[in-house]
Amino acid sequence: MKKVGIFYGPAGGRTESVAKRISQLLGSENNQLISLDNAGKDDINEYENIIFGIATIGKETWDAESLEGGWFDFMPLLENVDLQGKKIALYGLGDHVRWPKHFVDAMGQLYATIKGKGIDTIGKVSPDDYTFDESEALIDDMFVGLPVDEDFEPGLTDLRIKDWVDEIKKQFND
Ligand SMILES: Cc1cc2nc3c(=O)[nH]c(=O)nc-3n(C[C@H](O)[C@H](O)[C@H](O)COP(=O)(O)O)c2cc1C
Fold first, then answer.
1. Which of 65, 102, 122, 144 shows its CA 20 to 30 Å from the CA of 169?
2. Residue ID of nearest Cα to ligand 1 atom 12
3. Which ligand 1 atom is at minimum distance from the Cα of 17?
């Protein structure tokens, strides 16, 4: 497996702690953790295997204006990068109790940007194990990446991450 770039934002919270846990599971020699605060176009170009981590910090009506943790600047930058041939997996932090109608919406927004460039993501996840009403990250009955709810389901996170990492490991570029 070629080295994986784990790009995440915001820094300093649960999105970062999940990035670190994913990094450990992949094996630290196999990946590089990159906070969006320090990331630019060149960093994306460096990796054929990429994980993007994002949190949804919404308002009552979630929209792109609410993108936080570096994503407000990084998402438009992605639109101008060549993603051809890259394997890309997404995870998204959210809260299914307080935001059941906007569960991990930001991950859906990120997916739309990537899909708009003709690239599909790896590591889609069945919604069967989740409780929520609506999500922009649910496309064709699958989550476009891994939802993680550290607010109300922290006890499920380790197993969720492990199953997901096992799956994406098989699909990353050799
Ligand atoms: C002001 C605010 C708005 C939020 N809006 C949403 C939302 O619309 N959908 C959702 O799934 N989670 C929402 N959340 C939950 C966060 O995504 C969750 O707490 C996440 O773990 C935060 O990531 P961080 O710890 O890296 O900052 C919101 C949290 C806050 C504080």
1. 102
2. 94
3. 26
Ligand 1 in reach of 95 Cβ (< 6 A): yes
Which residue's structure tokens are 């910090």?
57
What's 3's DSSP letter? Answer: P
pLDDT tens across 83-106, in order?
Answer: 999 999 999 999 999 999 999 999
Rounded to two decimals, the pTM is 0.96
Q: Is 8:52 a contact under the CB 8 Å cutoff?
A: yes
User: Is the CB of residue 143 below 6 angstroms from any atom belonging to ligand 1?
Assistant: no
What are the residue boundaries of the structural domains of the chain, listed by start? 4-171
Closest atom of ligand 1 to 16 CA is: 26
E strands present in the chain:
4-9, 31-35, 49-55, 87-93, 138-139, 142-143, 146-148
CA angle, residues 167, 171, 126, in degrees to nearest 5: 40
* Rounded Cα–Cα distance for residues 168 and 15 (Å): 18
Its CATH architecture, for the domain 4-171, is 3-Layer(aba) Sandwich (3.40)
